[in-house]
Each structure stands twice: as C-alpha cells, then as structure tokens.
Amino acid sequence: MASEKSPYLLQHAFNPVDWYPWGDEAFERARAEDRPIFLSIGYATCHWCHVMERESFEDPDVAALLNRDFVSIKMDREERPDVDGVYMTVCQLMRGQGGWPLTIVMTPDKQPFFAGTYFPREGVQGRSGMLDLLPRLAAIWKERRADAEAAGASALQAVREVETRVMGSAEGALDEETLRRGFNELMARFDPHQGGFGRAPKFPAPHQLLFLLRWSDRTGDPRGVEMVEKTLVSMRRGGIFDHIGYGFHRYATDARWLVPHFEKMLYDQALLAMTYTELWQLTGDDAHRTVAREIFDYVARDLTDAGGAFYSAEDADSEGREGAFYVWTRDELDEVLTSTLGEEAARLARRAFQVEGRGNFADEASGLRTGENILHLRETSADIAAAVGADPGRIDDHLEDIRRALFERRSGRVRPLLDDKILTDWNGLMIAAMARSGAVFGDEPLIAAAARAADFILERLRDTRGRLLHRHRDGDSALTAGAADHACLIWGLIELYGATRDPGWLHAARRLLDELIERFWDPDGDGVFNVDAEQRDVPVRQKELYDGATPSANAATWYVLLRLGRLTGDPRLLDRAEALRHALSGPVGNAPSAHTMSLVAIDLALGPAHEVVVTGDPDSTDTQRLLAALADRYAPRTAVLFKPAADERVAARLEEIAPFTGGYDLTAGKATAYVCSDFACQRPTTDVSEMLRQLG
Q1: How many CB atoms lie within 10 A of CB 686?
Q2: Strand, coil or helix: what is 588?
Q3: In terms of DSSP bridges, do strands 313-314 and 264-265 run parallel, antiparallel, or are they unpaired?
Q4: Which one of 80, 213, 320, 418 counts the least CB within 10 Å of its CB?
Q5: Rounded to an integer, what distance in angstroms lies between the CA atom of residue 481 and that of residue 465?
Q6: Over 366-389, what HEC string results?
Q7: pLDDT interval class at 393 (50, 70, 90)
Q8: pLDDT for 413-425, tens place per residue?
Q9: What span, in angstroms and rounded, lies between the C-alpha atoms of 265 and 250?
Q10: In sequence order, what are the residues at sequence separation of 6 or more whose Cβ sits closer than 8 angstroms to the Cβ of residue 599?
Q11: pLDDT digits (tens, 9 = 90+) for 282-307
C-alpha cells in the first residue's frame, strides 16, 4: 500500500489491517487461501471514511478479525469509478441506499454477497458493529458457501439487468414534453423559501440548474430563472459557501444551506461557476459574475498544480474534527478584527456573518451548541449597512477588509488534507467552466489557465499507445480512462475552441470523440459503456445513465456529440446523437428530472439551432464587435466558428475539421457573419444588429 499513489490508500497504509490494492495479487491470495474478500471503498476527503478508519481499521481487534478471515482490499472510488459503480449498484439493490464508505464482502470471483456502508466498531442503535458483523460473515462463508455464491451471482446478474430493463423502453420520443415534465418535477420539489430541491440534505446539483436556465430561454417562462437565482443567491449567502477563502462545500446538511459537509470538490466548483456565469448572462446581475470569479480565485489558489492541471478536493476534517478549519468562536473573531481593524469592524462582522457567543450551529452527535460559528449572510450589503449605521457606499469595502483579516488569521491554522490527484474527467469540467467564463467575461488569463490545464492532460495523461489515462499524481499517470473522462475532456476542448478560436482544440476534441465511439460504444444496444472491452477486472461493464454529482457518461457523450456535430457539420455525429436519444428514451422518459444533463442535450437537439461563421481579421474592431456580441448572449443552442481572413494556415485547419466553412469569406472587405438556422442559411451581414436579428 505504501507504494500506491492514491492519497486515500496512503491514509490507510499503516493501519493494522493487511490491506491490498484492487488487483490480481489480492484475488489470487483469496483463491489460494479460500477466503472471502472484504472490500472497503471510499475517498480521501470522505468524513465518514475517516470515522470508520479511526473506529475500526485502526483498532487491533477489528484488524485481527479481518486479517484472520478475509483478504482485505482498500479502493479509492475516484481512481476506480467503474468498479465503485458496480458495487454501489449492488448496495442500492440490497439495501435500498448507498454511500461511502462502501463495504462489500464477496467471493474471490468478485461476486458480492453482502453490502453496506459505514459500520462502527461495536453495534449501536440497531446498527451492526464490525466486531459482531465480521464473525457472522466469516461463518456464512464457511458454513453456507453455496448460499453466498448464489447470492453473489444473483447480485451481479441484477446489476446487468438494471439498464437492460430501461434502455430504449419508453414509449414515444424524447421531446419538448419530456422537458416540460422535467421542469414540472423540479418545480414540485423546489423550496421557495430557501432555494434548492427537497429537504435536507441539499446538494447543489448544477446540471439541474443549467437545464432550468435553458427551459426559461426556450419557453419564456421566468420560473426557471427564478428558481435558479433563488437557489444560487441562497447558496452564496449560506454556510455552504466559504466566505473567507471562497469556493463551495460539498452539500448542506440542513435545508437553509447553513451547515455544510465541509469537503470541497473540484467538480462542484466547475459546474457551479458555469451556472453562475450563465445566470449572469441571462440576468445581467454582476453579483453572479462575482461569485463565478470567486470560485476561480479559490481554484487558482488552492487546487491548481504547478503544471497547470487541477487537484481533486479538500477534506472536511482537520485536527480530527470536521469543519475545524472553517469555524470561528466569537472571541477569536473579535480578537482578530479588533486588533487589526478596530472594534467597529468586529461589530460589523458579528452582524454581517451572524456570529453568536454560543455559536450558531449544534454538534451533529450531541445536538449541543459548540460555541463555534459558521460564517454566513442573511441580509444584503445595504441591509447590513442600515443595521449598523455604516456608509452603504463603503460597506462592501469594509466587508472585504474583514474577509482579508480573517483569511490571514485562518491561514495559520492546520489545513484540511488536499487530495492532489489530477483526474481527467473533473479537469475536463473545470477546463470547460474556465474557458466558457473566460470567453463570456473577456478574461484572457482565465482562458489561458484552461488551455494550460488542457495541455497538461493531453500531453501527460497518456499510455504507451497514446490512449487517455484517468489519474495523475506525484509524477505518475495511470489507470485507463473511461467514457466519462473522454466526454468531459471533449466538453472542455469544445469550450476552449469557443474561447480561443483555435481549431487545434476542435481537432483534439474530434480525435477523442472518435476514440470514445470506437472503444466505448455498445454496437448492440447503443449508448456507451463506462469502460472499454479491454478492462478485464470489472465484474460488469455498466452504462452510466443517471446524473449524480456529475453528469452521467452517456448524457455527457450525447451532449458533446451534438455540440461537435453542429460545429463540424458532420452528420455522422448527429446520427450517433440520435441513436443515443433513442437508447436513453427509457430512463430519461421515465424520470426526466433525474437525468437533467440529458435534458440539456434534448434542448440542444430540439433547437432551434443556429450556426454562425464569422470571418475577418482577428485584430480588427469590426471582427471583435461581432465576436463580442456573440459572446455576451446567452445562446446555448448556437454554435460559433471563426475563420480568420489573413491566416491561411488557421483557416485551412478550420476547413479540415469543418469543411462547410470553406466557402465563407469577407463581404466588401469587412468582417462578416454567416448565420444558418436549422441548416438554412441567411444573407451574410457585416452589421451586429442584423446578425442578432437573424439569430432571433
């Protein structure tokens, strides 16, 4: 274990449990010694994984039972989402729910006969403990072997049948009525008081918000934008946002967004930044642009590798406690601010951030106030200024001074663990967000950061055959990339083309898409498998359909097929997208709001779709006006290409990937826009207003 690269596995390297990584050595030993496998799956920033380690895996009595009766495997779910997906499905089928840490007991042939999540050392409140659970499982293996093997075979067969029961099984096509049902389902669960969907716990689920923005744009129904704005404003004010160092925590344990689960994940930062950017485009409220920039500031400062790629996450725990890095007692806050900015600043901070002497949240286990405060806002800056008698024109400056002082003090605390794995799929999402926001905001450094990360992934996460890899850490790139890695990185490359107008990014995206189709497409039932056929150590080749914390591999593939098909004019890609639309008709049609990234793809497929080719000198004012007008618009169904008039090499590269641009040129020597709508082109124009009129 000590030679592994995963921070999660390294955390467990010195447990008294004789851990193995997932691999042939562990399974061969289990077969040779006729033992079952104890598989524990988690990740480095998982709070309850830490709890189970402290309670059980560091305990000599638990370790003795595991070492005597089992071969124990520890797995990082972020390194092997393919294997985790299989056994999480098993757990959900057996238990009706899942989560991490995920606990699986299975045969040496990977057939699971027991599944669960967190288990304490000793049984409590009806929950089995490891000390009584492990002997029972060992007895089942020794005394009821046939039952265990039959249960394991049945469990894997059930996993295989999950998707075959629903793929392509819905009646009717996925159309605007599907979008309407998805909107209505989300609206029925919407919390009008606090934003978000359902009750506690509340997760950001940005792909739901991206869909709602598209629904409002499509239909003119303002309720989609209103739900998104209520949610994002409430999140930014709540404790789920880090008001001192920026960035969003994983989720809120309550309905008010106050008490977070304190880990910070790269994918949440990426998708939320993209959502705030799109909301700014639709509303023009600069507060939303500010939040997107704050997220990127956090990522640049704390989650960026020296080579330009992005780290995975920061832990919830430090000094053995969840949230210890982030919370403040009133006395500490007063001392910091009084000594640096004066008593008035301390008084302002107490009011603005709802700081109480007894603390503003309770211990999760005891329910008692701890004296610690999660900083959060309940009022606007103007309301805060009025409450404390401050100058409303200076209130934001005062709050920024307070934030800086608290940030300086907090920087001296013990930081949470940084999970510095670089994952291809999560990097693809951040590249997409940075490139999109950089283009919208006219922020060249942001675009450059996205390009640097993309270069890192494309150059350094490759195997000896040139195929994409999933994980890089500590100089080592490894683990075969899956469908989600390809699809998310393609999304990032498409956005990079939109931000830079360099057709090299389109060529890179197309090569990856061809590889995705070749290696992951199911020729019998359409859709994409999570892994290719060469991945022999996965007990079931699944197809990821449901959108979880990130878009599913199939939804992301569908989306990039449509995007790249429109940009290149290649009907074969659009045909593939249509095949995916049919394949996903069952799961998406049966539960639209559980597949909101697929709803984003449906919205794009239905149109009205526009393709715009702009030709001109990239440095000329008239060209920049046309491109800026397109960047400012919220236009999720518009594909924009730029053909530079004076650069024959770049123009030729564009024509290679998008041959239909070959006939486009300047009109009367001026920058020109060619607008096509649903494959019918309008008269070229050099006028910004006319171009926008043609786009509708």
Answers
A1: 18
A2: helix
A3: antiparallel
A4: 320
A5: 13
A6: CCCECCEECCCCCCCHHHHHHHHC
A7: confident
A8: 999 999 999 999 9
A9: 6
A10: 178, 179, 182, 211, 214, 588, 592
A11: 999 999 999 999 999 999 999 999 99
